[in-house]
Amino acid sequence: MPAPSADELKRQAAAVALEAVAPGMRLGLGTGSTAAHFVDLLGAKVKAGLDVLCVPTSERTRAQAAALGVPLATLDEAPELDLTVDGADEFDAKMRLIKGGGGALLREKIVAAASKRFIVITDESKRVETLGAFPLPVEIDPFGAKATRLHVERVTRDLGLIGTVGPRLKPGGHVFVTDGGHLILDCAFGAISDPDALADRLSAIPGVVEHGLFIGLATAVVVAGRDGVVTLGRTGAA
Ligand SMILES: O=C(CO)[C@H](O)[C@H](O)COP(=O)(O)O
Q1: pLDDT for the residue 219
Q2: In ligand 1, which atom is closest to the CA atom of 35?
Q3: What does the pLDDT read at residue 1?
Q4: What is the pLDDT of residue 188?
Q5: What are the residue boundaries of the structural domains of the chain, listed by start?
Q6: Is 57 in the pocket of ligand 1 (CB under 6 A)?
Q7: Architecture of 136-207 per CATH?
Q8: For this structure, is 108 an active site residue?
């Protein structure tokens, strides 16, 4: 049998997370190709009669879920969620994540933080010993973007992180703008030896709206690989 593709693995992880969904739940819906599989599978359950109310983390996910007939609310309408399911760009053994490759990190973090449980779904290529192989996205306000970028460079140099900090561009060269109207700096340093310290320092910079280090948020990471699906943490209620 041929090895499953990365896309098939993402769908397998999404299917495991779907088992944690129960009728009546309020759900956060992540963003990205893996989260899109979850939304797709959830849509089929909703069509079959599952009653849930969902808060999407991006306009892209909102459009997908709406097209599938998934009942939607804003986070203001449903400010306390039972479960959020989302992908990640990287995770380590402590379930620390880098997120934001799809540019939705701010809403993803707000929604995850409003959830009792946060299940991350990934294929095995996202597992790392040390975070940082994937460039860290940092969302910034457009006002004073150059000053904020210099500040991010200073702070990261102080922590011994050497690399590039640059604005994310769209294909064609235009600057990428998030759903919330912010910009993203992609910070490519390689191994981040102390993600907790970096998270604290970035959060303290005026102009940084949010960063893509998700620490202490994931309650489970479902990892689909060629040898099957393994779960770090607990997908079920405690
Ligand atoms: O953080 C994200 C979007 O902001 C995504 O979860 C992350 O980029 C992973 O995406 P994919 O599932 O397509 O690999």
Answers
A1: 98
A2: 12
A3: 72
A4: 98
A5: 6-128+215-226, 136-207
A6: no
A7: 2-Layer Sandwich (3.30)
A8: yes
Q: What is the distance in angstroms between the CA of the first residue and the CA of the last residue of the chain?
A: 38
Q: How far is the CA of 105 from the centre of ligand 1 (A)?
A: 9
Query: Which of 90, 108, 139, 210 does the annotation list as catalytic?
Result: 108
100 lines ligand 1 (CB under 6 A): yes
The closest of 30, 73, 72, 22 to 50, measured between CA atoms, is 22
Query: Is 179 near ligand 1, meaning CB less than 6 Å away?
Result: no
Q: How far apart, in whole angstroms, are the C-alpha atoms of residue 191 and residue 173?
A: 28
Whether domain 6-128+215-226 has CATH 3.40.50.1360: the reply is yes
Q: Is residue 212 within 8 Å of 137, Cβ to Cβ?
A: yes
Between the CA of 118 and the centroid of ligand 1 the distance, in Å, is 15
Q: Is any atom of ligand 1 closer than 6 Å to the C-beta of 108? A: yes
- What was the pLDDT predicted at 238? 63
Ligand 1 atom 8: the closest Cα is on which residue? 101
What are the DSSP calls for 57-82, one per residue? SSHHHHHHHHHTT--B--TTTS-SEE
**pLDDT for residue 68:** 98
The burial class, CB within 10 Å (0-12 / 13-18 / 19+), for 124 is middle
Give mean pLDDT in consecutive 10-residue pieces for the chain, a chain of 238 residues.
90 98 98 98 98 98 98 98 98 98 98 98 97 98 98 97 97 96 97 97 98 98 96 86
Q: Which of ligand 1's atoms lies nearest the C-alpha of 105?
A: 4
Would the ipTM clear 0.95, i.e. be above it?
yes
